[in-house]
Structures are given as structure tokens and as C-alpha cells.
Design goal:
Helix content: 40-55%
CATH topology of the largest domain: D-Maltodextrin-Binding Protein, domain 2
Order of helices and strands: HHHEEHEHHEHEEEHEHEHEEH
Distance between the termini: 43 Å
CATH architecture of the largest domain: 3-Layer(aba) Sandwich
Shape: globular
Number of domains: 3
CATH class of the largest domain: Alpha Beta
């Protein structure tokens, strides 16, 4: 276990303030300063530069803070798992909106057989899911957005087609050869900032020298069910995972945008903090019960 100086430095790195750090830890400001100086002497490099009123964490300090955060989360998770038998444990994981519809039901059927007393699933966007893993709020997450593969361990669970969709009543679906630039006069329906599908679409648009302001109108909604309803009412076009609107495509109420050069399948992954005490258990669980679906 790391001593109290490391926790003090982690708090300082988060707050950016000696005063706020002292208040949170119920110690004096000089005590914070003394602990940071003592830690710098021990590690052999500067952690903080301070020129009133600006406090900055050095690049080395940022790396150390990330390590401390990870170590604190993992040590607490390990202690919790050792203190409590699995039959009394609570398992908490996060899932994005898209994966909650596509993957969570299957995963829940697997997890319920593992003997946990309580299983909690937080449905959030990709950014929040990664933050919850990093803070220890969740033990792992199901996401479809981009993430740092140096920081997080992961296993692929599914490759899901990412498609452009509109109402079957919209004349645009009868154009035999659309490009993304042909759609800028349309209303674009997208998920909120931090969501995986928004990030994926933004990356695709950027590759074609387009950005969201190039579209006539952009409507942002956090709920994919609301986006689906607006599509059915011919309120615009959207880009999302095929499974979300599979039934509507099959019934003919919605139609894929005819874009011959737009063929994309995106990974949906189970993600955890590298070095997590749950790492080997998660890998084994996936290998035994959840085959990759393409």
C-alpha cells in the first residue's frame, strides 16, 4: 500500500489547489506542502511547479498521479474481493446506450449464474464509462467508442455494422449513390458529446473534410430511442448501429441510406483497467461464455 503522501499528491493533482487539498484531507496547507516536498525528495523528481497563482503538475507528476489512482482503485477492489465471499459481493459495470441494448442482456444471463448477490449496470456514454472504470466505480464496461489501449485491457465481443438510416418516406433513400457530402442539406440526428456513435461519425466526417457545422441542422439527443422515433417521423437522418433499428429496417419503416462507399463495422469491447484483480476472471468468462459475433 502507498503511504499518505501519495494520496495527498493525488488529491493535489485532482484539485490543482493546496488550499482545497488541505480542506479535503482535513490537514493544514503547510502540511500539504511538506508532504509534497518529502515525496519529491523520495521519488527524485519535481512533481509540482507553482508560480502564484498558477499550480501545474509536471509531466512526471501526471504519470505518477495516474499510477497512484490506478493503484488505489485496484488495491481497494482486491481487498473487497478478499473480504467478502462471491455470494455476498456486488458486481458493478458500465455500459453505453448502444451496448446496453445489444450486449447487456446476453452478459446478464452469464453473470447471474456466477453467484453474485447483486449486479448493477450503469448505462452511460463512453466517456463516463471509462471514467467510472478509472475511479473504481465500475469494475469493467461494455463500450463501442474509442479508448486508450495502453491504459485499458479489453476483449472484442462483437463487430456491429454502423449504418446511415432515414425514414422510408424520405426521398433521399431512393438516390442510388449517395456520398456524405450529399447529405449536408439534411437534418442530422446524433447522440450527445462523449457518446461512442457521435465520436465514430465525427471521425468519418473528418476523414472526408466535413464537420458537424457543415450540416444544415444538427439535433443532439442522449436517448437512442428518441432518435429512432424521430427517424420514424422523418425528422432527419442518423448514423447508428444496425441492431438498434433492425426491426424497423425489416418492417420497411426505415431504410438504409444508399451509400456504396460507406461500409463500416465497429468493435464493441469489454474493457477494464489494466492490472485489475478481475482481469483473469473477465478473460476466462468471455472465453467460456461469450463468443465473438461478426
Amino acid at each position: 500500500m502507498l503511504d499518505h503522501r501519495y494520496h495527498t499528491f493525488l488529491t493535489l493533482a485532482r484539485t490543482g489547489s493546496y488550499t482545497q487539498t488541505a480542506d479535503e484531507l482535513f490537514i493544514t496547507q503547510p502540511a500539504v506542502t511538506q508532504q509534497i516536498k518529502s515525496l519529491e525528495k523520495e521519488v527524485g523528481f519535481k512533481l509540482v511547479t507553482y508560480r502564484r497563482p498558477i499550480l501545474e503538475i509536471t509531466p512526471e507528476g501526471q504519470k505518477l498521479a495516474e499510477f497512484i489512482s490506478k493503484a488505489e482503485v485496484q488495491s481497494q477492489q482486491l481487498l473487497d474481493s478478499l473480504r467478502v465471499p462471491v455470494t455476498n459481493q456486488t458486481l458493478v459495470f458500465s455500459a453505453t446506450m448502444s451496448t446496453s441494448e445489444i450486449l447487456v442482456p446476453e452478459l446478464m444471463m452469464v453473470l447471474k449464474k456466477q453467484g453474485y448477490q447483486q449486479i448493477d449496470c450503469h448505462v452511460v456514454n463512453t466517456q463516463t464509462a471509462l471514467e467510472e472504470i478509472s475511479s473504481g466505480t465500475s469494475q469493467f464496461a461494455l463500450i463501442e467508442g474509442n479508448f486508450d489501449k495502453q491504459r485499458f485491457g479489453y476483449r472484442l465481443l462483437r463487430r456491429e455494422p454502423f449504418v446511415g438510416v432515414a425514414s422510408s418516406a424520405n426521398p433521399v433513400v431512393r438516390n442510388p449513390d449517395l456520398g456524405l457530402t450529399d447529405l449536408t442539406a439534411m437534418t442530422l440526428l446524433l447522440r450527445e458529446e462523449g457518446s461512442g456513435t457521435r465520436d465514430i461519425f465525427r471521425s468519418i466526417a473528418t476523414a472526408q473534410n466535413l464537420s458537424l457545422p457543415d450540416f444544415k441542422q444538427v439535433i443532439t439527443i442522449a436517448d437512442p430511442t428518441a432518435i429512432r422515433e424521430l427517424l420514424l417521423r422523418d425528422a432527419g437522418i442518423s448514423f447508428l448501429y444496425e441492431s438498434v433499428v433492425k426491426a424497423d429496417l425489416a418492417s420497411g419503416q426505415l431504410a438504409r441510406l444508399p451509400m456504396p462507399n460507406f461500409k463500416l463495422a465497429h468493435d464493441m469491447d469489454l474493457v477494464w483497467l489494466k492490472g485489475s484483480p478481475f482481469e483473469s476472471t473477465l478473460i476466462q468468462l468471455i472465453q467460456d461464455h461469450m463468443a465473438v459475433k461478426e
